[in-house]
Amino acid sequence: MTAAARLLHWSEQLGRSAGAAVTELGYLAALLAESVYWLARGRGRHQPVRVAAVFAEMMEIGVRAIPICALLLFTVGTMLAIQGLHTLETFGAQTKLVPLVALSITREFAPLIVGILVAGRSGSALAARIGTMQVSQEIDALRVIGVNPVRYLVAPSLVAMLVMLPMLTILADGVGIAGAAVYGAPRLDLSLAVFAQQTLDSLVAGDVLQGIGKSVIFAMLIALIACSTGFSVSGGAEGVGRAATRAVVVSISSVVVADMVFTFLLNR
Amino acid sequence: MSTPVEPAIEVRDLVTHYGRRQILRGVNLRVEPGEIRVIMGGSGSGKTTLLRNLLALNRPTSGEIRVLGRNLTGLDEPQTDALRRQIGVSFQGGALFNSMTVGENVAMPLREHAKLDESTLRVMVRLKLEVVNLAGFEHLMPAQLSGGMVKRAALARAIALDPKLLFFDEPSAGLDPVVAVELDELILKLRDALRMTIVVVTHVLESAVKIADRITVLDAGTVIADGPVSEIRDHPSEQVQDLFLRRPRQVEVDADEYLRRLTEESVGS
């Protein structure tokens, strides 16, 4: 291949990938719009989004994730206290550990770790479930029964995600700071109560809200990416496996990138 | 015929594409109410595509499809849903919802479309399962059922709303001959008891001959024969006889066509 032909080939590949990415973004937007439509108008069309289905999803996405979520954030909090003390010692500024932990957990670590955790746990599960239903013609069966698959499968997951991710983030805020306190308080000669009080003093509502705002964006990304990946499955069991992997990789990447963008925009 | 009856299904000049490949090339089909119509054809003949178009799961490139008097291409979503309430479908693999019990599967269409209290619902589910000889199995999960039971459960779900029109995709695929025959009997019983119009898509000859009023034979996207069973059996066309006598298809080599196919493929990829 000549250099010119290779260049042409590359640019063609680039164009194709860009086109596919735009198509997927459009699909995500359409999925979101359709979910919102069914949530708002479903009852009028005798196809309500079932509350029971939403609660079932909330159990699966949120409540069952509490133990692992608490464990991870406690560990991250402790780790942050260890590293923070080590770094702050070089400036003789150990007392700044409390605001350091409080701000970095609430603004960054809690939403990010929870987002990655839920993307890995529920993103893959959602994609695999919808993908399996696609392969076994259950999606077609829903449609011919006259049940809209977006209303039945996507909307409940989206709502559950939007409710549970902020909840988990709030929980993660508390557990993460507790993890830091357990390690940091004795070394600063503070009681846990004083550590907690100082934490509250160094936080403003905006810090916590920033984390919660992020988690709402993450919830949307994870639910929509997982569902759209599931619907696009073809090619049997192998396709389902590939979709589960893809859902995890794409949703974790987009959570991390969205986190950066969001942080940048909010801290200019 | 004395009085013209509106056909249950009427398809005119249906053309469909999958990507750039043409699947159906001008299919015409007319199914009368109360009839059992079998659509036959080998793999790749387009019978599944035809079925998906009749169910409004795929959209045709051109042509007209009327189901129960409604033109499918002209319907919006609520109208399509309303029409689908009068149609039952049993998919090839059953397509039972794997996360629900058999009973919940059958209850699903009733729950979504009919306002029934729980006890009435339970009775209705038992009634439908009784029809397909699955009474007492409502608490099992689909994974616990045998192949024949899955098909019958899918049938029970398909008839849950007493449809006027029932589609059956490959009823005997993957079943042993005895169970397949039982399923054929069930289809006949359903038509006689519930006066449904039934469209069966299959490649299995014995079952087609046994249950059909009329048979439509598809090959490479066109209807090559359409008529009562006896007529199809004695059909002069070689392709139809190939299908009936299970002869491997005669491949005619056309050098130009072959070359065109090879070159076109490389452009398309």
Question: How would you sum up this structure in a few lines?
Answer:
By secondary structure, chain A is mostly helical. Chain A has nine helices and no strands.
Fold and architecture overview:
The complex is a heterodimer of chains A (268) and B (269). Chain A is 85% helix and 0% strand. Chain A is built from nine helices and no strands. Chain B is built from ten helices and ten strands. Chain A binds chain B through residues 45-47, 132-133, 136-138, 140-141, 143-148, and chain B through 52, 55, 57, 77-78, 81-82, 84-85, 87, 89, 91-93, 95-98, 108-109, 112-113, 157.
Measured between the Cα atoms of the first and last residue of chain A, the distance is 48 Å
Largest sheet of chain A: none
- Unreliable spans of chain B: none
What is the element string of chain B, with H for helices and E for strands? EEEHEEHEHHHEHEHEEHHH
The total count of helices of chain B amounts to 10
What structural category do the secondary elements of chain A indicate? mainly alpha
Total beta-strand segments of chain A: 0
Helix proportion range of chain B: 25-40%
Oligomer: heterodimer
Rough outline of chain A: globular
Assign a percent range to the helix content of chain A. over 70%
Distance between the terminal alpha carbons of chain B, to the nearest Å? Answer: 52 Å
Radius of gyration of chain B: 20 Å
What's the alpha carbon Rg of chain A, rounded to whole Å? 22 Å
Count up the helices of chain A: 9
Task: Let me know the average pLDDT of chain B.
Answer: 86
Low-confidence runs of at least 5 consecutive residues of chain A: none
Largest sheet of chain B: 6 strands, mixed
- Strands in their spatial order, largest beta sheet of chain B: 6-7-8-3-9-10
